[in-house]
Amino acid sequence: MTDTADTSLLTTASGKPPFYRDTTIIKWIVQVFTLVVVIFALYFLSKQAGDNLKARDINTGFDFLSVNPSFAISDGIDTAPNTGGRALWVGMVNTIRMSLAGILAATILGILVGVSRLSNNWIVAKVASAFIEYMRNIPLLVHILLIFFTLGQLGDFGKEINEVTGKLEQGPINGWIHISNKGLSVPRIHISDGFYQWAVFLIIGAIVGRWVMNKRTAARDGTGAETYPVLSFLGVLALFGFIGWFLHPFFGWLGDAIFGPISRLIPNIPQIAVQLALTALALVMASLWIQRFLTSRRTPAGLARLTDDDWFRMIFAGAAAVIAGVVFLVIWPGLSSWIINSSRDFFEVATDKFGDGRGNWREDWPIDAARPDISKRGNFANPGPAGLNFSQGFAAVFFGVVLYTSAFIAEIVRGGILAVPKGQTEAAQAVGLKRSTMLRLVVLPQAFRVSLPPLGNQYLNLTKNTSLAIAVGYSDVVQIGQTIFNQTGRSLEVFAIWMLFYVACSLAISAVVNFFNVRLLIVER
Amino acid sequence: MTNTDATVAINEELGSRDDMIVCDGVDKWYGDFQALKDVSATIKEREVVVVLGPSGSGKSTWIRCINRLEQHQNGRIIVDGIELTNDTRNVEKIRSEVGMVFQGFNLFPHLTVRDNITLAPLWVRKKPRGEVEQLATDLLERVGIPEQADKFPGQLSGGQQQRVAIARALAMEPRIMLFDEPTSALDPEMIKEVLDVMKELARSGMTMMVVTHEMGFAREVADRIIFMESGEIVEVGTPEHFFTNPTEDRTKLFLSQIL
Q: Would the CB atoms of A522 and B123 count as touching at under 8 Å?
């Protein structure tokens, strides 16, 4: 039979194939070609942009980050920032604050609505369905504008001066909650400066309590006698909390002894040191990654033969580190001054919060419930012990994204619960678990595992959707960035900062979600 | 129903024992379809009853009614002296007295084998963990897989999973065990290991109600066999009576098809 077979296959199988059929060579050619095209495209676009900007006499660069922007910000940690970088930082903090609060509120509301929709109670289930349909079938921008204008239509009632006493009236519910065209005012747990000293007591209490709990768990497992380990933990924590409540100024020295020196040291760090440190960090991380990658390719018999793809990965990791180093060292020195300034800010705040034996031994409790101060509405920078005053814009964006996202989260939660096989609830019932215990220990852990990846997507959406704040003038990073580029004309630079900021936020959220996702994976085989 | 002498004898012997499960005129409909028709039977303490019948004859529905996984519409079910009513306390009490093993194992996939077994004693019986862990170790020893305690259900074979499910039910120290086709989802070589555990359980004096297609098991272990068809109990008798000398035509037809 062999003499009639096609012999060309046999002859090439023994020797080397021609280069246009060799997969190794084909792979390298395609990869190198792609890399060249990408680099050329980037070069071409940036050259074009640079030429056009030059022709129109537009300056480029990140110098605006260290120049006083001379505009005021309505909401935020600093309403009169002294540099452009700080102004953007205020916006970033606003975005982060909005996103974190929104994620928390949307998750709680979403779980409630999702479980309600599965309820056997007809009215509860229908109300939940109606809420979901209303929320998810109308664009988010419409929701935000609707809330914004509804709040604006409210009068500024409750602010009258009482004719008899001459004092400001507190409004309905004795001033605890107040809705008006100046925004939404709610009470909050006021954290006074003493709180941070009290927190030191709580941390020590938690460590000691944990030690006691481990001891008692071991004793219970050894003898079988009930020793209430969790109650012991809570008891120790409560004891430390109680003592610290009265003795918290004891830890006032921490501010001047530790945080003060650090905050005074930071401005003396030369910029070039931060740049070199960042560059070194990039190179170290790349080499660590490559090392770890090589370890993962190691077999008991020694290093496995590396494929072409493995080489591409290692080369690209090294190239990325080198490019990052160039960015840190040459293109953007403003970054290092920003890092120095913001970390100094952080330690200054810490010093200030711990104070110097601060606080009256009797009057300044660590935490306190505080009514909103309605004479200062419309201002998020709440001075003194008072409740939260959300500005109209904050309230509109916050409730817009929370209500909108919670509708989607509700559907994800419902799907997750329905995805748990019926046999699981039957088995749980058959061993006699109560409904609430069954939900907590059997159904929700499995539903959560299914829901987590889509839940992470909703968190990303919520974070990105907060950028709609620009429609109602809330000072998030986009709104402040736009003000800056209107003033300075540095649109490309501002866009770069926006994109990097949102990418960083998204990656951080994904990292957290993935962490839990890996931990929740069900082990099979 | 005419009983042979052997059936009369065993009924006399059983008569002296306590009633564990009493069903009296139980009816169950799914919409227009009647799944159980006037089912009445009494199962005594330490008795092993095997329920046979073609698919769709209502065997599983009946056994699931006994711990309220399905709700019957007419008649009474009394388990260990407690009647199944809408009173949730009665239902909870009965469920903690009755262990159940399912065709599809229904182990909790997110918990280890040990945690599957300790979950109910910890949360329902509120026993201390040290004692429950010891119980789990003993039960895994009893079903022959002590070395698998820290694995997850997905890492075990079907036969091992079903034995864990039996250990999980036994951890509540039930007075009655219900088996709903426990070997139907298993490969032939795994069926034996599960049946061996069930035989050991029967010899230890557990009251058992078993829905199965394993005729060998029914012949060897059962005290009585209940044959059902179309939601009705057709014939009740000892294995000897049932396999050698059935009285009803429908029973004869069934046996001629499977033997």
A: no
d(CA A348, CA A259): 7
Nearest by Cα to A430 from B146, B206, B30, B105:
B105
Q: Indicate whether A383 and A361 sit together in one domain.
A: no
Q: Is residue A60 situated within a structural domain?
A: no
pLDDT for A516 equals: 87
Contact list in B for residue A524 (CB cut-off 8 A) is 109, 152, 154-155
Q: Do the chains contact at A433 and B119, CB–CB below 8 Å?
A: yes
Q: What pLDDT does residue B171 have?
A: 93
Give per-residue pLDDT as tens, B61-71.
Answer: 999 999 889 99
Is the minimum CB–CB distance between B104 and chain A shorter than 8 Å? yes
User: Given an 8 Å threshold on Cβ–Cβ distance, is A523 in contact with B131?
Assistant: no
Q: What is the pLDDT of residue B41?
A: 92
pLDDT at B2: 47
User: What pLDDT, in 10s, does the model give residues A202-254?
Assistant: 899 999 999 998 888 887 766 666 677 888 889 998 998 888 877 777 776 77
Look at A437 and B123 and tell me if their CB atoms are within 8 Å: yes
Residue A100: give its domain's CATH number: 1.10.3720.10
Residues of chain A contacting residue B123, judged by C-beta atoms under 8 Å apart: 433-434, 437, 441
Q: Which two tokens mark B89?
A: 């306390």
Same domain, A412 and A291: no
Q: Yes or no: say if A78 and A511 are a contact pair by the CB < 8 Å rule.
A: no
Q: Are A324 and A419 part of one and the same domain?
A: no
| Binary contact (A427, B96; C-beta < 8 A) | no
> Are A269 and A360 part of one and the same domain?
yes
Say whether both A69 and A24 belong to one domain.
no
Which ipTM did the prediction report? 0.89
Residue A525 lies in a domain: no
A297 within a domain of the structure (yes/no): yes
For tokens 């939260």, the residue is A388
Average pLDDT, chain B: 89
Residue A311 has pLDDT above 90, yes or no: no
Distance between B135 CA and the closest CA of chain A, angstroms? 12
Q: Which residue from B205, B204, B200, B248 is spatially nearest to B226, judged by alpha carbons?
A: B248
Please name the residue of chain A whose CA is at the shortest distance from the CA of residue B154: A524
d(CA B50, CA A207): 57
Please name the residues between 168 and 197 in chain B that touch chain A, using a CB distance below 8 Å.
168-169, 171-172
Whether the CB of A163 is below 8 Å from some CB of chain B: the reply is: no
B92 touches chain A (CB under 8 A): yes
> Across residues A97-112, what is the average pLDDT?
94
One domain, residues A322 and A453? no
Of A226, A433, A434, the CB nearest to B128: A226
Among candidate residues B97, B103, B139, B99, the one with its CA nearest the CA of residue B118: B139
Closest chain A residue to B155 measured between Cα atoms? A525
Cα(A212)–Cα(A231) distance, integer angstroms: 10
Same domain as A442, residue A509 = yes
Choose among B96, B107, B131: nearest Cβ to A432: B96
Mean pLDDT of B130-143: 91
CA distance B65 to B28: 9
What pLDDT does A384 receive? 46
Per this entry, what is the length of chain A?
A: 525
Of the partner residues A223, A426, A524, the one whose CB lies closest to the CB of residue B69? A426
Does A208 fall in a domain?
yes
Confidence of residue A190 (pLDDT cuts 50, 70, 90): low
Q: What pTM was computed for the model?
A: 0.69
The DSSP annotation for B197-243 comes to HHHHHHHTT-EEEEE---HHHHHHH-SEEEEEETTEEEEEE-HHHHH
Domain range spanning residue A267?
195-367
* B window 105-124, beta carbon within 8 A of A: 106-110, 119-120, 123-124
